[in-house]
Write a structure and sequence with these properties.
Blueprint: E1 9-11, E2 14-15, H1 17-23, E3 28-31, E4 36-37, E5 44-45, H2 50-56, E6 59-65, H3 73-76, H4 82-107, H5 111-118, H6 125-130, E7 136-137, H7 140-151, H8 164-168, E8 183-190, E9 193-194, E10 207-208, H9 209-221, E11 225-234, E12 236-238, H10 239-255, E13 258-267, H11 269-274, E14 279-282, E15 287-289, E16 293-299, H12 301-307, H13 332-356, H14 361-367, E17 372-374, H15 375-380, E18 386-387, H16 390-400, E19 410-413, H17 421-433, H18 435-447, E20 453-455, E21 460-461, H19 462-465, H20 472-482
Parallel strand pairs: 1-3, 2-4, 3-7, 8-11, 8-19, 9-10, 11-13, 13-14, 13-15, 14-18
Antiparallel strand pairs: 5-21, 6-16, 12-20, 15-17
Helix pairs in contact: 4-5, 9-10, 13-14, 17-18
Length: 484
């Protein structure tokens, strides 16, 4: 977004698609003669671990509901399914088309000219300047000199600079987010969803359901807040926690206007939360939807044989070993129960989505099935109400709360309190001596051993996220773990 009344320049010593996309919002783009440029296009990657698991002697047993809910495919398949390929192709096409449109508009070129240039594999900055992708090729000190000339600062004087930390601490009043009597609450929900807080401090990041519910209730019980904005950036997680937070958001929305403002990702459990709000706002490229669930366990029998480990279980109750017996496959009756429980969780998610979005169940089923949409496409299918960022959400909140749009309000974020000393020490102690407990928590996540999950697939947009030069195996592991 161009700053009104200001001139904005970009200096890019290393630049790929994401950096250039941001730079195009500036009037001028500079780079040094030795700059690294690689505007070669975008890719999407979907890693598959089935071959690795087979070599280790691990058999995944996964129930995923929704033909596009491919997070389970990473464990059970070696290649993409047709549905998975269809979904990723649509996402990539949307993102790439948006990149081409924005860059072509900013640089005053035709879209086909930008695409043709990308396909030439140009990396020389001289060519980039010749083709109008760069304003000039100069070093950063020369950029400073030009800025001094434009600002009429003497060459022997320092250019007044504001670093990022100071700039990010700008007063809310300068952004129109304070100064008014009416208060609008912002509740941030970022990261993977867990129901309760772990005693391990390193495992307590992300969205802790019980903590977020406390904030929601605080806003609901207070008369000082005229509206609330739930700011969501989450690929999902524990389905139970997502449902409990959905309920609290619905109760809040019954007492005052609630707007869900989606950031980068609001999918699966993240969308579950959003659909509890009265209005859902998303960016045009927000990854959202993914209305589906997955659950599963690992059969470690062959691995145990390889390493000489044995485990015997004595149980009472027909299904007592459903989760405990990781040394064998599920029996047919156990597999049937396993599948029915996942189906039940999916129907709850889908039906509540239909209720929240005022759709029939059949209509919701058409856009559910675990499919991930961009915000723009989600809006066309009725999953999102408006396209925009946080400022759009604030404007809608004011409208719903009968506050004139030209009147200033105070936007107050409910921050999480800093951990107490006992909590810090407990986390430190567990980090030092609780190795077995840590391993058990990690194993529980990997095997979905206690909860049905509402998670989005682990997807890597390679150039968009900066992975192309990373070790492919490390990137694969990193992407898979980020989806859990």
């Amino acid at each position: 977004m161009m700053l009104v009344g200001k001139f904005v320049v970009a200096y890019v010593p290393s630049c790929r698609e994401k950096e250039y996309y941001i730079a195009c919002a500036c009037e001028e783009i500079y780079a040094p003669p030795s700059a690294y440029f690689s505007l070669f296009g975008l890719t999407v990657q979907a890693p598959f671990l089935r071959g690795v698991l087979e070599n280790l002697g691990i058999e995944p047993e996964v129930e995923r509901i929704g033909k596009y809910k491919s997070v389970g495919d990473q464990l059970t398949r070696k290649t993409m399914s047709e549905d998975h390929h269809e979904m990723l192709t649509a996402l990539l096409d949307n993102i790439y088309t948006n990149w081409l449109d924005k860059v072509s508009s900013a640089r005053g070129k035709k879209r086909e000219d930008i695409e043709n240039f990308i396909n030439k594999g140009v990396y020389q900055v001289e060519r980039l300047k010749e083709e109008g992708f760069l304003t000039d090729i100069i070093y950063d000190d020369e950029v400073i000199t030009r800025l001094k000339e434009r600002l009429q600062v003497k060459t022997d004087k320092n250019l007044p600079m504001v670093d990022n930390r100071k700039y990010s601490g700008v007063r809310k009043s300068t952004l129109g987010l304070s100064g008014g009597k009416e208060l609008i609450a912002i509740i941030r929900a970022s990261g993977s969803i867990r129901r309760i807080e772990s005693s391990l401090s390193t495992r307590s990041s992300g969205i802790i359901g019980e903590k977020l519910i406390e904030k929601i209730r605080k806003v609901r019980e207070s008369n000082k807040y005229k509206a609330a904005i739930i700011r969501i950036d989450s690929p999902g997680g524990d389905a139970l926690a997502s449902d409990l937070m959905w309920r609290e958001i619905r109760l809040l929305a019954a007492s005052k206007p609630v707007i869900a403002s989606m950031s980068d990702v609001a999918a699966s459990g993240g969308y579950y939360m959003a659909m509890g709000a009265g209005v859902i706002v998303a960016e045009s490229l927000t990854l959202t939807g993914s209305i589906g669930v997955v659950t599963g366990k690992f059969n470690l029998g062959k691995l145990y044989e390889k390493i000489g480990f044995n485990k015997e279980i004595i149980s009472r109750g027909r299904y007592a070993e459903l989760r405990a017996a990781e040394q064998r496959s599920l029996r047919p009756d156990e597999a049937e129960l396993f599948s029915k429980s996942a189906q039940h969780a999916y129907k709850q998610f889908r039906d509540k989505a239909a209720l929240s979005r005022s759709m029939t169940v059949d209509k919701m089923e058409e856009v559910a099935q675990g499919r991930v949409w961009t915000g723009k496409d989600a809006a066309s299918h009725g999953l999102v109400d408006a396209i925009g960022g946080l400022s759009r959400a604030v404007a809608i909140a004011k409208l719903k709360a009968n506050i004139p749009l030209d009147r200033q309000v105070t936007v107050l974020e409910l921050s999480r309190p800093s951990p107490s000393l006992p909590e810090i020490l407990r986390g430190l102690g567990n980090s030092l001596v609780g190795v077995d407990r840590t391993f058990n928590e990690l194993l529980q996540d990997l095997t979905f051993s206690h909860e049905v999950q509402a998670r989005m697939d682990g997807i890597m947009f390679e150039k968009l996220e900066g992975y192309p030069y990373a070790n492919p195996i490390l990137a694969l592991i990193k992407d898979y773990l980020s989806s859990l």
